[in-house]
Amino acid sequence: MSGNGNAAATTLARIQTDSVVATLKALYPGLQFEIIAMSTTGDKILDTALSKIGEKSLFTKELEHALEKNEVDLVVHSLKDLPTVLPPGFTIGAICKRENPHDAVVFHPKFVGKTLETLPEKSVVGTSSLRRAAQLQRKFRHLEFRSIRGNLNTRLRKLDEQQEFSAIILATAGLQRMGWHNRVGQGALGVEVRAKDQDILDLVGVLHDPETLLRCIAERAFLRHLEGGCSVPVAVHTAMKDGQLYLTGGVWSLDGSDSIQETMQATIHVPAQHEDGPEDDPQLVGITARNIPRGPQLAAQ
C-alpha cells in the first residue's frame, strides 16, 4: 500500500505536509508516500481581500477535486482553512496536536521597538483576516487596517519593500513552521480524506490528538452555528482544565466598534486514543474519529 499526500504549492504548505508524512512514515515504515504539490484559488487571487471573494472553499476546492479523482489519498490543511461543512464524500480523518494558535505582529524595520499602541497615528497595519482587523480596530483606534494577501514570503517582502505598511499581522504557527522563530509548536493541522475510504481513515486515524480534536470540534461547531467564514469577523478560543472545556466566542462589527463575547463550559473526559468511537460524524462538523468515544465528541459540540 502507498499513500499520496497533497500539499498546496507554497513553502509553508510543503512544511506542513512534510511533518504529517514524516509521522506517518515513522508509524508505518513499510509504506511509501509521495507528496504532490498543487495551487488553489486562494493561492492565486492575491489582489482581493478574502472577505470580498465570497467563496468558502478558496483553499480547498482544487485539493478536494484531486482527492475525489483518487489522484491523492489525503490532503493536509491548516484547519482554519477548512469550511465547517465539507462537501459530500469528504471527512477530516485526523486532527494533529495543536501547540500555538496565537497571532504575531511583524514590524517594518523603521519601527523596531514599537508596539501597536505606540505606532504613529494613521499607521497602516496589514492583515488578511477580517477577524483580526475588527478586533484590533476596536482596541487601536489610531491605526488603519488594510488587506494584505500572499504567502508568508510575499507578505514579508511587501512589508520590507513597500512603504504602505508599518506592520503586518501573521499567524505565529506559520512563522514557527518556516523556522523564523524558536520552535514552540504550531496550530492544528487537519488531514482531509475520502469519507468512505476505510483504509486511509485507519491509516491517518492514529494522528488524532484527543484534546486538540475535542477543542476543534467545539470551535467548528461554534463557527458552523454562526455560519462564520472569511467574510465574518468571528473568533473563538478554547482551553481544557480539570476536565472542563472552556469556550469563549466573539463576534465583531466590521469596524470593530461593537462586539459581543461569551464564555461557556462543559465537563468532558479526554479519552485515551485507543477507546472505541463512533462510525459516523456525530457532531456534524466534518470530523471522523473512530478511536475517540462518541460521548466526549457530543459534549464538546
UniProtKB/TrEMBL annotation:
Tagged with keyword Cytoplasm: yes
Xref: SUPFAM superfamilies: Periplasmic binding protein-like II, Porphobilinogen deaminase (hydroxymethylbilane synthase), C-terminal domain
GO terms of molecular function: hydroxymethylbilane synthase activity
Protein source organism: Nomascus leucogenys
Family of the protein in this entry: Belongs to the HMBS family.
Porphobilinogen deaminase C-terminal domain mapped to chain residues: 214-285
Substrates-to-products reaction catalysed: 4 porphobilinogen + H2O = hydroxymethylbilane + 4 NH4(+)
Function: As part of the heme biosynthetic pathway, catalyzes the sequential polymerization of four molecules of porphobilinogen to form hydroxymethylbilane, also known as preuroporphyrinogen. Catalysis begins with the assembly of the dipyrromethane cofactor by the apoenzyme from two molecules of porphobilinogen or from preuroporphyrinogen. The covalently linked cofactor acts as a primer, around which the tetrapyrrole product is assembled. In the last step of catalysis, the product, preuroporphyrinogen, is released, leaving the cofactor bound to the holodeaminase intact.
Protein name: Porphobilinogen deaminase
UniProt gene name: HMBS
Domain of life: Eukaryota
Keywords: Acetylation, Cytoplasm, Heme biosynthesis, Phosphoprotein, Porphyrin biosynthesis, Transferase
Cellular component terms (Gene Ontology): cytosol
